[in-house]
Amino acid sequence: MDTPVDTALSVPHTRPEANDRPTRIRVGLDALAHNLRAIQAHVGVPVMGIVKANAYGHGLVPVARHLEAQGVEQLGVAFVEEGIALRRAGITVPILVLGGIHAPQVTQFLAHDLEVTVSSIAKLRQVEAAAEATGRKAVVHLKVDTGMERIGVHSENAASFIEAAVASRRCIVKGIYSHLACADDPASPMTREQLDRFLAACAHFDRLGAPMPIRHLANSGGVLHFPETWLDMVRPGIALYGVLPDPASRATVDLRPALSLVSQVVYFKIVRAGRTVSYGATWTAPHDTRVVTVPIGYGDGFPRALSSRGEVLVRGVRRPIVGRICMDQFMVDVGADGTAYNEDEVVLIGDQGGSAIRCEAVAQAAGTIPYEILTGLNERIPREYTGGAASDGPRDT
Ligand SMILES: *Cc1c(COP(=O)(O)O)cnc(C)c1O
Fold it and tell me: Catalytic: which of 52, 143, 177, 371?
């Protein structure tokens, strides 16, 4: 079963030499556990913790392991390879693969005990064929499209789809779900329309006299803003990591950011008035300016869009990034008389000396959403886990 796709998930930051890098992501496992408990208490139904895309950059396996230890009811990933990586790491909670299935991969779901998203009758037939061929049963969740137009049978056509699934001898229909397009914004009327369409589709189970499977609809936005979407299970991703999905979102749950991104000063200089900094000479020192260099760049996933727009914390003070962000380094203006020394900690996301830079603010400065900031932080940055099961000392994975 060792398929080449798995190598993409055996992350290279396990190499010990990479761990000496002064740049690192710190993940607070206690914050994750707190967010899980806060969400569970808020919604009062089981939680499917979404850990796709390397657990939103926090590290797939360590995050999944901690959520499992903290009693998460189910996990969700985007791709079958992510699910396989979790099974190989010994994770035993139910795992749903949210993405559309790719026919050659269907047998892998069955071999690794992964729940399948079935998004059409044709896909149902593919899953049945694979189950038949391997003599197993497939656990499936039916995907209904209520307005996202991504994958899933349109809710108005769900009757025959549900009928086919209920009649299947090889598929166990464990769940039915849909995905919300606008739940990040508490004022959007679309969520209620999607809920109505979803419930109308679910009603076909009653009409068939079939048991109602687990109905799940709410992403983080649904969890935060729309109690009527909680139904039988919720699927929060970004909220679990303590980050709000959108500037319009309301913090109705007490969430703590789990991730910080830190580096260190590697160089200090005085840039004379009139000299320029970095590629393209886009920033000119207005007067003699103290400038430090930080060893992280867009090659790590720190967005180049933050060139002369982002800020970092040095010695507890907010300081501007000046000039273009390079692949591996960028420069920071620490002022006409600011002090900074080699090896001083630089906080790109997180707290320092009573100040904080939130992922949400970084995303806004970069003209994007927090999801893209978090998932963009790549495997070149070592991850360090604190708290939780790692309380015997930080460990790299
Ligand atoms: C990514 C995803 C989620 C989680 O979304 P958040 O906005 O991060 O909470 C839930 N459900 C599906 C189907 C997804 O693809």
Answer: 52
On whether the CB atoms of residues 114 and 97 are closer than 8 A, the answer is yes
Whether 212 contacts 206, CB under 8 Å = yes
Percent of the chain, pLDDT > 70? 93
Task: Determine which one of 174, 241, 269, 279 is catalytic.
Answer: 279
CA distance 157 to 212: 18
Q: Judge whether residue 391 has pLDDT over 90.
A: no
Number of independent structural domains in the chain: 2
- Ligand 1, CB within 6 Å, residue ranges: 50, 52, 98, 179, 219-220, 235-239, 245
The CATH number given to whatever domain includes residue 113 is: 3.20.20.10
CA–centroid distance, 307 to ligand 1, in Å, is 30
Show Cβ contacts of residue 7 under 8 Å, excluding neighbours closer than 6 positions.
Answer: none
**CATH code (residue 371):** 2.40.37.10
Q: 153 in helix, strand or coil?
A: strand
Q: 211 and 269 share a domain? A: no
Please give the model's pTM, rounded to 2 decimal places: 0.93
Helical spans, DSSP H, in 216-315: 220-225
Residues 289 and 356 in one domain: yes
Q: What is the pLDDT of residues 341-353, one digit of tens each?
A: 999 999 999 999 9
Q: Establish if 155 belongs to a structural domain.
A: yes
CA of 128 to the centre of ligand 1 (A): 26
Q: State the pLDDT at residue 71.
A: 97
> Ligand 1 centre and the CA of 299: distance in Å?
26
Query: Is there a single domain that holds both residue 179 and residue 226?
Result: yes
Residue 180 above 60 pLDDT? Answer: yes
